[in-house]
Design goal:
The chain has about 575 residues and is an alpha/beta fold. The protein folds into 4 domains: about 170 residues, Pyruvate-ferredoxin Oxidoreductase, domain 3; about 180 residues, Thiamin diphosphate (ThDP)-binding fold, Pyr/PP domains (Rossmann fold, 3-Layer(aba) Sandwich); about 70 residues, no CATH class; about 100 residues, Rossmann fold, CATH 3.40.50.11610. It is about 40% helix and about 20% strand. The strands form 3 sheets. An 8-stranded mixed beta sheet has the order 6-5-4-1-3-2-14-7. Strand 5, helix 3 and strand 6 form a beta-alpha-beta unit. Helix 5 packs parallel to helix 7, helix 6 packs antiparallel against helix 7 and helix 8 runs parallel beside helix 15. The chain is globular. The protein starts with 8 loop residues before the first strand and ends with a helix. The N terminus is likely disordered.
């Protein structure tokens, strides 16, 4: 018997060159596996090109919910001769490679299935992809009926011949896979199934977009930039369902200023971008600081500087988000760790922006926005949305000095007063001023909001033993990977702090760190940006940093190895 050494999950990778339909197979396969009752975690690695190169999708099929990628490959389906060299570092002696010699060559460890020949017999080599899909489902003993029903509905709009040919290809692949399984030549551990009737399968972009809609977002203005584009794409697809205004601006400068105008008029608006686009928005972010106008910005991180690796992942823009904009003014930075977290924090971002009249930045990364798995359905209920707009009186002053620094915010046309705003320093009514004493009062007023923001944010949230000797700190999408690595290590004196509210930092963070003999920071960047922020805010420097910045996310296995080297012996 051959297969995965872990009885609770199977790691499947499909890979080929851009243009071969890897993403389509991924979408079909994960949907069918979910219908069959499996827990799924899928993420992709792709090159920045239209054709050629090597792209791969990694699908983790598990008996329990999983939110982290694996390095090992249990089953590899190569659709191109470049796949094996590209993924060699992930292959082990246990890896099963199933493919077509006509495509990948005569490898000694290849289980040959003549996908292209069989596809040609159907009428077109393109059906080899559907055959590969059926092959995997057969190896996992997924019922052919589940596969056929889904494929028939998915291809229904393409005509009877296309439906029939895809079904034939899928059956041929399924028969081959099931035969290999039943013969014992290839067999994987049984994966437990569950009732997933109340679950959904979404990716990070969709979770951010749905959270924004639930948070009352009425308008999104953006210029496309990978990996932030998926948010505006989803909202454009559903703009008529939710009454959204979706505007592809001519550039990022226009996008941020349109969003500020929307908030001034009373709408809730957001922009979505990546690091290069966010850099163009920094003057607009500073304008939001002076106008005290709310705005929500989704920043999907990718490696820089400049164009960098446009289709890869990194946590390299925390300091960009933290210091963007000239002058001093408060902001909030959120970094969701999961799809439910992306939904919840995206939703919360609009209330925070509205309540405190500050920019709220949602920091994700390519790994998170392109990852998807089945999770409990989100609750889309806009009626729970809080609004913080007042009706203006005749003597209304937009920037009235208040004890907490938060002036009542009115919008034009709602009330008797005028709503004056200005990008220059201004008095309480919004008129330009060069009164230097008033300047100090206005700066203090704006910065004082940060204290109120700190009161509203959640504590750090220590996970693990109370009598810990070591603490591992991470943020955003790295959190679940660290969580699973620590669980595999089984250490009983190590705690984790998984940060999703990056700025302001949780008030109790310094207390937890001071009580540990050893502290470790884990980040997907080269300079430990969160570590530097924590040191600045708490005075605590980390003993060790585990950093990765080659454009790929951490995997569970490599974090297990890295943490073992860093953690003190029990």
């Amino acid at each position: 018997m051959t297969g995965s050494p872990a009885a609770h999950d199977i790691s499947i990778v499909l890979a080929g060159e851009a243009g071969q339909g890897i993403q389509t197979i991924e979408q079909l396969l994960t949907a069918i596996l979910q219908l069959a009752g499996f827990h799924i975690h899928a993420t992709k690695e792709y090159m920045s090109r239209v054709r050629g190169g090597t792209n791969s999708t990694s699908i983790r099929v598990a008996s329990r919910p999983v939110q982290a990628p694996l390095q090992r490959i249990d089953l590899l389906i190569p659709l191109d001769e470049k796949v094996i060299p590209h993924l060699r570092y992930r292959l082990t002696e246990e890896t099963i490679i199933v493919g077509d010699r006509e495509v990948v060559g005569d490898l000694s460890r290849l289980r040959h299935v003549p996908l292209r020949q069989l596809a040609r017999e159907i009428g077109n080599e393109m059906y080899a992809n559907t055959m590969a899909l059926g092959l995997i489902l057969g190896l996992l003993a997924v019922e052919a009926q589940v596969m056929e029903q889904y494929l028939a509905s998915r291809f229904a709009g393409k005509g009877e011949e296309v439906v029939a040919n895809n079904l034939q290809a899928a059956r041929l692949g399924h028969d081959r896979g099931y035969a290999l399984r039943e013969s014992g030549e290839i067999r994987f551990p049984e994966i437990m199934r569950h009732d997933n009737a109340k679950e959904i399968m979404v990716n990070g972009s969709e979770a951010i977009a749905m959270g924004a809609i639930a948070g009352g977002c009425q308008c999104i203005t953006s210029y496309p930039m990978t990996p932030g584009t998926g948010v505006i794409t989803f909202m454009a697809q559903h703009q008529h369902d939710f009454g959204l205004l979706v505007e592809q601006a001519e550039d990022e400068i226009a996008a941020i200023n349109m969003a500020l105008g929307a908030w001034y008029a009373g709408a809730r608006a957001m922009v979505t971008t990546s690091g290069g686009g966010f850099a163009l928005m920094t003057e607009g972010i500073s304008l939001a600081g002076m106008l005290e106008t709310p705005v929500v910005i989704h920043l999907g991180q990718r490696p820089g500087p400049a164009t960098g690796l446009p289709t890869r992942t990194e946590q390299g823009d925390l300091e960009l988000a933290l210091y963007a904009g000239h002058g001093e003014f408060p902001r909030i930075i959120l970094a969701p760790e999961s799809l439910p977290g992306a939904f919840a924090l995206s939703r919360q971002a609009f209330d925070l922006a509205d309540r405190y009249q500050v920019p709220v930045i949602i920091l994700t990364d390519q790994y998170l926005v392109d990852t998807y798995y089945n999770t409990a359905a989100f609750v889309l209920d806009p009626r729970q949305t809080s609004r913080f707009i007042v009706e203006s009186a005749e003597d209304y002053q937009r920037y009235r000095l208040t004890p907490d620094g938060i002036s009542p915010r009115a919008i034009p046309g709602r009330g008797l007063g005028l709503v004056g705003v200005d990008s220059d320093e201004h008095d309480e009514a919004g008129h330009i001023t060069e009164d230097l004493e008033l300047r100090v009062k206005m700066v203090d007023k704006r910065l004082h909001k940060l204290e109120k923001i700190k009161e509203a944010l959640l504590p750090a949230g220590l996970a693990g033993p109370g009598d810990y000797r070591a603490i591992v700190v991470s943020w955003g999408s790295v959190n679940p990977i660290v969580r699973e690595a620590l669980a595999q290590l089984g250490v009983n004196d190590v705690a984790q702090i998984a940060i999703q509210q990056v700025y302001p930092l949780p008030a109790d963070l310094g207390h937890y760190l001071a009580a540990a003999d050893k502290t470790i920071i884990v980040e997907n960047n080269a300079t430990a940006q969160l570590g530097h922020l924590i040191q600045r805010e708490t005075g605590h420097g980390f003993h060790q940093a585990i950093l990765k910045y080659n454009g790929l996310p951490f995997t569970v296995e490599e974090l297990v190895d890295d943490l073992q080297k860093c953690l003190p012996a029990s």
